[in-house]
Amino acid sequence: MCANVVNKPFSMGHVIAIDGPAGAGKSTVARAVAARLGYTYIDTGAMYRAVALWAAREGVALDDAHRMEQLARAAEFALRPGRISLNGEDVSEAIRAFEVAGAASKVAAIGAVRAALVAKQREVAARANVVMEGRDIGTVVFPEARVKIFLDADALERVRRRSADQPEVPAEALARQISERDARDRGRAESPLVQAPDAVYLDSTGLTAEEVEEAVLRVVRERISNGKEQTA
After folding, report:
1. How far apart are CA 66 and CA 48, in angstroms?
2. 3-state SS record for 201-227
3. In angstroms, rounded to a whole number, what is the distance separating the alpha carbons of residues 112 and 129?
């Protein structure tokens, strides 16, 4: 882990941290929970994809850690539910390209890039209550978050979901990409994908998005008592 990411003091409002592997349903559920609570939704994966997209456009090699760090630090993001702008351009569709998704996990393995984007993610949480989803939210970005969910699903279900979202991509290619991404995310030296000790494990296999949403909200009710009726 990158010590300057983990140990730097920061303040925050309420944070709901949702971690898990690709295709587990994090984005769908996180957006819905944020809408129910009136919180700000942050898709950290979209930020890494945006940096990967910028690198591709600039011809920057993904293994050029110095240039990748420069891009991550310079990137200006504007986030709205389901949308992301990079340096003033809406790139919400562009970052969903199959090639960009594959590049994003390589970008995310660069410690300096993670440090730069974690700082930006914390800046948002310092100003608002957030629902943030990614790979290391509960372990590195917000280890002090009171609500942590590790959302999972079996491999076949995750491939099925990605196929529904990207019908133009062969299922075999998606399965291979998810398998390779799982290996990179879990095996990388910087902020690997692991369940935080105090996170609630939730297997979404066979559950509807609404059922997962309600399960997350039950955890919120149990761990955050703020006198409001937002979670009802």
Report:
1. 16
2. EEECCCCCHHHHHHHHHHHHHHHCCCC
3. 26
pLDDT at 225 (0 to 100): 62
Q: Which of 71, 24, 82 is nearest to 48 (CA)?
A: 71
Pair 16, 147: CB distance under 8 Å: yes
What pLDDT digit, counting tens, does each position of 81-132 carry? 779 999 999 999 999 998 898 899 889 889 999 999 999 999 988 888 999 9
Q: Edge-to-edge strand order for the sheet containing 147-152? A: 40-43, 130-134, 15-19, 147-152, 200-203
pTM: 0.83
- The count of other CB atoms within 10 Å of the CB of residue 197 is 8
CB-based contact 121:132 (threshold 8 Å) = yes
- Per residue in 28-53, pLDDT (tens digit) is 999 999 999 999 999 999 999 999 99
Of 46, 6, 12, 54, whose CA–CA distance to 26 is shortest?
A: 46
